[in-house]
Amino acid sequence: MNIFYGTGVAIVTPFQADGRVDFDALGRIIEHLISGGVEYIVSLGTTGESATLSKDEKKQVWEFTAKTVNKRVALVAGIGGNNTAETVAEFKAFNIDGYDAILSASPHYNKPTQEGIYQHYKALAEVSPLPIILYNVPSRTGSSVSAETTVRLAKDFKNIIAIKEASGNFDLLNQLMRDKPEDFLVISGDDPITLQMMAMGAVGVISVTGNALPNKVSSMVRTCLTGDYKAAHAAHYDLIEFTRLMFTEGSPAGVKSALKTLGIAGDTVRLPLVGVSDTTAQNIKKQIELIG
């Protein structure tokens, strides 16, 4: 199967108490994900708090991640922005060693038209050293990539191979699944509705929840890929409350709390994010104990 079938995890960037990147913890998380059966890792997506990392820190995290993964699973870099020229320059400068694709979110804040979104991705596709996975996440960007724009990009640029679809808009998904090229992949970008999206033809998920529970998430996704959705229901239902808690007080604060409970990494986040409340942390701990 395509290397992006199954479970990808948008890996967190762990920080020490003083705010510095905790590379020892990052190594432990990577091993946790690989041993948990994920198919690929996304480094410095939104969950990785990429907006708060310096250029030097990003370079260090990407290089450390590639070296630690050592091609045991596929690897994706998150590179995006709302300044097209600057994002183009980042694509050109990116060291592709160890990486298989680039995940790039639609421009945030500017609220471009569909033509603006198309032209932004066209500029990236023309310089990208790796295949591109589009990312539609209107709850963060302030605008949505329409099904028509995604299909247009998929048909016009062979190196645009997939979309991480996190709009939660099933009317959009209906149109996208009907009209996209056969080999263009749709990937869930929304943990709570991964099973439902896969029933419609999505090939997997890029997960936040999988940072903490990679085995549970990847097992459910692989079961969905076999077409046995009834068998996948149990894992889906087991994960509902835990997944809700991952986002109750913002991401990645929730999943970092879970990683702290598991003894894998600390729960420090960088401002303007803050950690979850004691009540939510306790509820996360209870869910981990229930799920086992």
UniProtKB/TrEMBL annotation:
| TM segment ranges | none
User: Which reactions does this protein catalyse?
Assistant: L-aspartate 4-semialdehyde + pyruvate = (2S,4S)-4-hydroxy-2,3,4,5-tetrahydrodipicolinate + H2O + H(+)
Q: In which pathway does it act?
A: Amino-acid biosynthesis; L-lysine biosynthesis via DAP pathway; (S)-tetrahydrodipicolinate from L-aspartate: step 3/4
Q: Name one GO cellular component term.
A: cytosol
Q: So where's the catalytic machinery, residue-wise?
A: 135 (proton donor/acceptor), 164 (schiff-base intermediate with substrate)
Gene3D superfamilies, alphabetically? Aldolase class I
CDD domains for this protein: DHDPS (cd00950)
Signal peptide residues are none
Q: Which residues bind pyruvate?
A: 47, 206
Classification via SUPFAM superfamilies:
Aldolase
Q: What is its EC number?
A: 4.3.3.7
Site (Part of a proton relay during catalysis): residue numbering on this chain: 46, 109
Using the UniProt record, give the first listed, main subcellular location. Answer: cytoplasm
Subunit annotation: Homotetramer; dimer of dimers.
Spell out the HAMAP family in the cross-references.
Answer: DapA
- Record-stated family: Belongs to the DapA family.
Q: What is this protein called?
A: 4-hydroxy-tetrahydrodipicolinate synthase
Q: Which organism is it from?
A: Mucilaginibacter terrenus
